[in-house]
Structures are given as structure tokens and as C-alpha cells.
Amino acid sequence: MHQFLFLLFGAFCVGGAINLLLQKKTINSALSLIVVMGSLALIYLLLGAEFVAVVQVIIYAGAIMVLYVFVIMLLNAGDEEVVKGSNVAKIFGIPGLFAGGIIGIWVLLQHRPAEKLLPIGAMYGPADKVGELLFTKYLLAFEVTSILVLIAIMGAVVLTRRSRV
């Protein structure tokens, strides 16, 4: 049952990501990103990381997406003009996609010893363990991330500020 649910939520996640890329309007892409983040939270629940799943929903699907929508509305992104882009993404992207898929399948088939696999729920999931790791081993990355979010907000404000001439 776990494997079926994992594949189902993984399919939702991949479908939401593909839909995010195919949308023409920015706000619809943001809504597709909420689907991706919600399905990731469900996958975390399957892995036994309840705290990480709740944080995923509250912080990312909630607060960060509100921030994205706020920036989209602040920038007043109207109709986007359609321009003919370069073919670099098609030339390098499609072979890169196939090469990445083949490498991923090869890694999954070659490296699957059963004695080294962790049982479901063995990863860090309780709040005390996540907090301990976050504020000891990963403190620098946590602080750098918060500074980057602050810089992004300031950049959005600067971009939308009208010059008074």
C-alpha cells in the first residue's frame, strides 16, 4: 500500500511540476507549485517524517506561496509577450533529460542492497531531532536561506518602486 501511495503522490508531484512549466500565466504556475508542495508533504508523511510534512505545508505551501503571489501581484505582471526563443534548450535539454533518466535508472538498479536501506520512519522526523540538526549542524545554511529570502523581497520592492522624476 505504501508503494502505491508513494507512486500516486509522486505522479501528482511530477504532474504539478510539468503543469507549472506549461502554464502561460504566472499565477497559475504558482498554484501548480502548491500542488507540488502538497504532494511532497504527503510523501513526507509516508516516510514517517510528520514534523517535516507539517512544516512543508505551513511554511512552503502556506507562507512562501503567499509571498510568491504577493510578489506576482506587486510586480503587476500583465500579459507576457511571446518571443521566439533560442533552440539551445531543445538541443541540450532533451538529450540531457534522456541521459539523466538513464543514469538515474542505472543507479537505482545497481545500488539497491537490502541491508543498507533504512526502514520507513528511521529518518529524522520528530520536532526535537529536526530542531537540533537545524540549529547545530545546518545553522549556516538556515541563516543564509533567510537572508536570501529577505534580499528577494527587497529586490521585488526596488523593481516595483516608481521613479519620481
Please, could you describe this protein's structure?
By secondary structure, the protein is mainly alpha-helical. The chain has a single domain (2-77, 87-115, 124-160), classed as Four Helix Bundle (Hemerythrin (Met), subunit A), CATH 1.20.120. Helices cover 73% and strands 0% of the residues. It is built from six helices and no strands. The radius of gyration is 20 Å and the shape is globular. It starts with a helix and ends in a 5-residue tail after the last helix. The model has no long low-confidence stretch (mean pLDDT 78).
Number of helices: 6
* Elements, N to C (H/E): HHHHHH
Write down the oligomeric state. single chain
Tertiary shape: globular
Total E-strand runs: 0
Helix % is over 70%
What number of structural domains do the residues give?
1
Query: Overall pLDDT, averaged?
Result: 78
Strand content bin: under 5%
Q: Please state the structural category.
A: mainly alpha
Reading off the top of the CATH hierarchy, the class is best stated as: Mainly Alpha
List low-confidence stretches.
none
Rg (C-alpha, Å) = 20 Å
Mind telling me the CATH superfamily name?
Answer: NADH-ubiquinone/plastoquinone oxidoreductase chain 6, subunit NuoJ
What distance lies between the first and last C-alpha atoms, to the nearest angstrom? 64 Å
Largest sheet geometry:
none
**CATH fold type:** Four Helix Bundle (Hemerythrin (Met), subunit A)
CATH architecture annotation: Up-down Bundle
